[in-house]
Amino acid sequence: MGTVSVGRAVMVSVRLRALAVSAALAMVVAVAVAGCSSTPDAAAGSASPTEAVAAFMHALGEKNSAAACARVSTGGQPLTNAGFDQCKEGLEKVLADLDDPNEIAQLKTASVTGATVNGDKATVSKTQITNVPDGYQNDIDLVKLNGRWYIDSKQ
Questions:
Q1: Residue 68 contacts by C-beta under 8 Å, 6 or more apart in sequence?
Q2: Which of 112, 105, 67 has its CA nearest to residue 88?
Q3: What is the C-alpha separation between 81 and 18, in angstroms, rounded?
Q4: What is the Cα–Cα distance from 125 to 67, expressed in whole angstroms?
Q5: What is the spatial distance between Cα 139 and Cα 52, in angstroms, rounded to a whole number?
Q6: DSSP single-letter state for residue 70
Q7: What sign does the dihedral 32-35-37-41 (CA atoms) show?
Q8: Average pLDDT, 10 consecutive residues per value, the chain (155 residues)
Q9: Is the pTM of this model over 0.85?
Q10: Those residues with Cβ within 8 angstroms of residue 98's Cβ, 6 or more apart along the chain or in another chain
């Protein structure tokens, strides 16, 4: 395989991984509104938008789906019960494929340099998320619920 072909294969792999993370989160929160089985063990939400995104990335690096899902909301509510369980299951499938030591190290040390806050809504732009693998740099919308910030799944 030539250098160009290897480069394309790597780019396709990165894009597929980014799509898998996005799709898993979307799928997870689509089912997040019914049932009851468990609630988050990790502290839910975060004190600031930047802390919420950084904690989410760090949780991914630690392969801790419960801690990551504790930072997500849907329909104006933090994930609980079946929604929380679905989020964990979806992220666990994605995280099982996260085996690149460099990507794991980057996620564990990701930093967020700022956020644009407008009342109870905020956005962390992809340029404000540093030290993460390419496929993880996306604009992230957040919502403040009961004084805590959550990544807004918009479902």
A1: 56, 59, 60, 87, 91
A2: 67
A3: 26
A4: 22
A5: 13
A6: T
A7: positive
A8: 37 42 44 38 82 96 95 92 92 92 95 97 96 90 96 83
A9: no
A10: 17, 60, 63, 104, 107
